[in-house]
Give the backbone structure.
Amino acid sequence: MRIIWISFLTCLLVAGGAAIAAAKSCGAHISYEHGHDGCTNIDFKNGTLVIKHENRYLETVEITSEYELYVNGDHVETTDEQKVLLREFYRGTEEIVGYATHLGWEGAKIGLEGARLGVEAVGNLFKLAFTSYDSEDFERDIECEASKIEAKAARLEDEAEVVEEMADDLEYVARKLRREIPRLRELDWF
């Protein structure tokens, strides 16, 4: 029976590692909902920030790593002051994507720890049935491990609040960009 559990856990670890490796190769992508209008998709492709609205496939905003602006494939001339805003928006988005990616990986690791604890709990049920290990031992061990996972989740939640504050700051920069750049103002979703 022990060999079966070890094989099962090994399969879980291998599958989890393969899933993480596959996701890392896809690049950074974030979607966020805003009201009843749908979602905005944000990608970084070869150093260019690409922003698309899910319901308006032909409308695209791109900001290059040199802070050049393209709307629907057309280059938009910008002033030095507008470039400063574009740089702030690009870097802020880059930072949020980095944090969000980190939070996603950490969340996935916490989820795997929870799954591991579930498997461990099932294994401990067998210990209850066939050894001197009793229900108090079982409860103590599971609660101890669960509290560690809960603490990690609480820390992750605190980090997520920081990202939320960063997103609020970025929304402020986006409003300034809309106000300053007529082509962006024309897009009612940016």
Observations:
- The two ends are 58 Å apart (CA to CA).
- Residues 1-27 have pLDDT under 50 and may be disordered.
- Residues 2-186 form one domain.
- Residues 14 and 80 are 51 Å apart (CA to CA).
